[in-house]
Amino acid sequence: MTNFPNGFLWGASTAPHQIEGNNVNSDFWAREQLRAGMERSGDAVDSYHRYAEDMQLLSDAGLNSYRFGIEWARIEPSPGHFSSAELAHYRRMIDTALRMGLKPVITLHHFTNPRWFAEEGGWMGPRAVERFAAYAETAAGILDGVEWICTMNEPNMLALMTTMSRAAEQQKDKNWQSPTVDGDARPVLPDPDPEVGYRLVEAHHAVRDLLRERTGAAVGWTVANQALVALPGGEDMLRTKQFVREDLYLEGARGDDFIGVQSYSSQNVTADGIVPHPPHPDNTIVGNAYRPDALGIAVRHTWEVTGGVQILVTENGIATADDERRIAYTETALQHLSAAMDDGVDVRGYLHWSALDNYEWGHWEPTFGLIAVDRTTFERHPKPSLAWLGNVAKSGSISSQDQQVSTGTVAS
């Protein structure tokens, strides 16, 4: 029996641009209309209007938490103009979650920016930190009753996306490469520019104390944890790659109330750099190796680098069309998480990625969700994995019977 403590958060996560639909004032929407090789988000899965239905499915399954974002591009459609209607919309979402027994974990920024912010130079613009702080101060007014606030989602991936966007401006005819979709034949993504990373740390620190004071919530940010592992001779390169890709941002979380760990897979590092995932039948839809043990590696590394900041697993999941495999992956990942907790790592919750099959930053094929969606009718179809995770949440444990069922589905 694998047991988790009372009060542990069990839930699922989403991002506004990926599920809401018609986020027309964002820079990513503009990119979708122009960039070759990108599928468009369009109506997405219409969660802007159907959020109550989505939350009800999570609550009915037995989950007690839901991580969702509020969209800056909607709230501040032009510089200094804040939409009362959109603020009220997101406040209704918070109230709905609370009413359904779901603790809301709110993300203020999940990759997308207002178009005007991008036109000002984005995160490297002269007023970037000031603009983000003004938005955060306004958003704080609707966050009463929220206990967990993420200032930014995966700033290391945001820095990478900023780095890639700069390069793309020089190669407008080149097809879009989603930073979240590897593919078996694609080389390893470039390192994010540390200059961008330091600016994001500055922006995070600029709003952290403000949000604490205005809301009383625990405030932190989430980091894409790559669970890099050195092969013999790769130890020095591992330290170099870890810093520029992850540890810069983990160090920026020292002094936070929590750190969000987001883990999917692992990669090896040699003296020459990160080893690409080789083609393999077990690889996921996005080209990742099947590595549920990565979650344990990620939380241990995060705990060490941050100096003991408490952890909330804000994303963990697998892109697969085989839901039995999703259950197997999740069960094994939770075993590794529990082992890390037994060794003293302070983990307060597990939020699966994702609540819904959604728009994966330029692509629709990858399916991470606990709930499938018909994109024509928007009908929701809960998968067995949702009921499975809900049962784990209700019992606070994974039984030996669960383990036998789930581990039996993994291909050898």
What do you see in this structure?
- The structure is a single chain.
- The protein contains 14 helices and 15 strands.
- The chain has a single domain (2-396), classed as Glycosidases (TIM Barrel), CATH 3.20.20.
- Helix 11 runs parallel beside helix 12.
- The chain has helices at 16-19, 27-34, 47-61, 72-75, 84-99, 115-119, 128-139, 155-169, 194-215, 235-251, 294-306, 323-342, 384-395, 400-407, and strands at 2-3, 9-13, 65-69, 103-107, 148-150, 218-225, 228-230, 258-263, 267-270, 273-274, 311-316, 347-353, 371-373, 380-382, 397-398.
- It is globular, with a radius of gyration of 20 Å.
- The protein has 412 residues and is of the alpha/beta class.
- The strands form four sheets. The chain has an eight-stranded parallel barrel with strand order 2-3-4-5-6-8-11-12, surrounded by eight helices.
- The two termini are 24 Å apart.
- Mean pLDDT is 93; it is low at 403-412.
Question: In brief, what are we looking at here?
Answer:
This protein has helices at 16-19, 27-34, 47-61, 72-75, 84-99, 115-119, 128-139, 155-169, 194-215, 235-251, 294-306, 323-342, 384-395, 400-407; strands spanning 2-3, 9-13, 65-69, 103-107, 148-150, 218-225, 228-230, 258-263, 267-270, 273-274, 311-316, 347-353, 371-373, 380-382, 397-398. The protein is an alpha/beta fold.
Measured distance between first and last alpha carbons: 24 Å
| Secondary-structure element order, N to C | EEHHHEHHEHHEHHEEHEEEHEHEEEHEH
Please summarize the sheet with the most strands: 8 strands, parallel, barrel
Helix share of residues?
40-55%
